[in-house]
Design goal:
2 copies of one chain form a homodimer. Chain A has helices spanning 5-13, 25-28, 31-42, 52-58, 98-110, 128-133, 148-158, 195-200, 218-228; strands at 2-3, 18-23, 47-49, 67-71, 87-93, 115-118, 142-145, 161-171, 181-187, 203-206. Chain A is α/β, with parallel strands linked by helices and 231 residues long. In chain A, the strands form 2 sheets. A 6-stranded parallel sheet of chain A has the order 7-6-5-9-8-10. Chain A has a 4-stranded mixed sheet with strand order 1-4-2-3. The mean pLDDT of chain A is 93.
């Protein structure tokens, strides 16, 4: 479910198949909304018209701008690296806040990661709040969930290094050149990485922070690390 | 106004003067809440006890954990750099989302900036939602609002360079060593920096992003830039 003008616009620009649209009069009230509805109708997307009150019962947001689209969740697998090429993948280990998860998907997509992978304990990456926070990044980026044994097999099969974000790790600005194929794992907002994940990491890295502050937001930390560890 | 257990704990650890507490039975229901209430009462902080219903009318959050503190907003001025020492300041130019503003304050504090400065058009940095998103960073970090002429005077007086985050700027990873005294300006979530700010910048810097994604979240971008441009 994609809610709101900007998210539905992004969806319309993506290769994903749109199953249908729900629209209220509010969507027609702006030129941008009217243009989007007309473009999708011209593509043969079924549009269900409802009044504001019925629309509000279907929408998750407080101000959903009168437009909501339903699309199929694309089938995605863990990415296969190009021979000899670099690879970045972001692993989410127990990230629970939908806003954080969405910002993580957006950040990974923007910084060139091939996928964002949710391990068990992480919020559903395709829940409407996550999709909305990601500002449409899902539609062009592999966001998927899998289990830890599948990740372990994938790491071994493709010779991908696993690095974890951990406040006890080495300062990321002094670790030197990162591996060409790297999966970066970030953990739960309060508790960090699960023991099983942390102990499997080939290295753990940290961002030094000022004494009075406890931590960085997980999406900010992931952005800094993915940028610092870019290929 | 500081809401919630963790934020009030951070406030209690800070030098800020707590004017009073509002507590409901929910605050006593956990050992952590009961310990915090006892510690503040021992310091002579007045505690008003109310039932859950009255508490809910005062609290801004849906699950405020039965504790809310009121403290004085500290008087803060633009920071004076130490002679010969480095300085980092984050300027917010029209950041409107309270969650983003709070994460920006938290990020600036964590990455060693001396202050986060709100220019006109930016949300009030001391609004309860901003304070909550910052996870207590306000209590140890100078978060203040001022106007553009005051910033211009301060830049000139203390020989501080002004760099702006702008998608048309130079790749931050190739700009070389940053100035010792640097104010980094980030703009509105949709529109970026105001013209008056961008044209005054001594340099503009960007984070290269993948084609299909429009932008990074403003707090993620600020985190990457403050980290990449650390002294």
């Amino acid at each position: 479910v994609a809610e709101g003008l900007r998210t539905v616009e992004e969806l319309a620009r993506s290769p994903l198949a749109i199953v249908g649209l729900l629209a209220s009069p509010a969507a027609d009230a702006t030129p941008r909304g009217a243009a989007l509805l007309a473009a999708l109708a011209a593509r043969g997307v079924p549009v269900a018209r409802v009044d504001e009150r019925d629309f509000a019962t279907a929408a998750d947001t407080e101000s959903p701008q009168g437009i909501l689209a339903i699309a199929e969740i694309p089938e995605r697998a863990l990415p296969v690296p190009a021979p000899g090429g670099p690879l970045r993948v972001l692993l989410l280990d127990g990230v629970q806040d939908p806003g954080n998860a969405g910002t993580l998907v957006r950040t990974a997509a923007a910084l060139g990661a091939a996928a964002t992978v949710a391990l068990p304990g992480t919020v559903d990456l395709w829940n409407a709040k996550v999709v909305r926070s990601a500002m449409g990044a899902h539609f062009h980026h592999a966001a998927l969930a899998t289990d830890w044994p599948a990740v372990l097999d994938w790491l071994a099969m493709h010779d991908v290094a696993l690095w974890g974000a951990d406040h006890r790790g080495r300062d990321v600005s002094v670790v030197g050149a990162p591996p060409a194929r790297l999966a970066l794992a970030v953990g739960n907002e309060g508790g960090g990485l699960a023991d099983a994940v942390r102990t499997r990491c080939d290295a753990t890295v940290a961002i030094p922070i000022a004494g009075a502050v406890e931590s960085l937001n997980v999406a900010v930390a992931a952005g800094i690390l993915l940028h610092a560890l870019r290929p």
